[in-house]
Amino acid sequence: MRRDVFQAIADPIRREIIELVSNNSLTINEVADKFEISRPAISKHLKILSECGIIEIQKKGRERFCIIQPKNLLPAFLWIEQYQKLWEDKIDSFEKYLMELKTKNKDNG
Predict the structure, then answer these.
(1) Domain coordinates in residue numbering, the chain
(2) Which of 9, 46, 63, 66 stands 20 to 30 A from 86 (CA)?
(3) Mean pLDDT score of the chain, rounded to an integer?
(4) What is the pTM of this model?
């Protein structure tokens, strides 16, 4: 099965794992210790993140480390970014509307 970045970020546990390893590389056990779900469940999430290219699992001695591959999050970032202007415009328009209401209420009060 071909996986992509959107599958990786679709699950809240995987987003939390991405956040955890974005600052420091962590061992699989260190990642698992942060969650109250089974280690096999964490392993499944890590496998999906690895298949999507979001994390790389590197073996160092007996430990396996989860290392973030931030460049592979870029497609999701670019897709979301295209909507940023749209939402900023909508928020600006809403703020302007609220200010007009506020001014109108002051004039009538």
Answers:
(1) 5-108
(2) 9
(3) 91
(4) 0.75
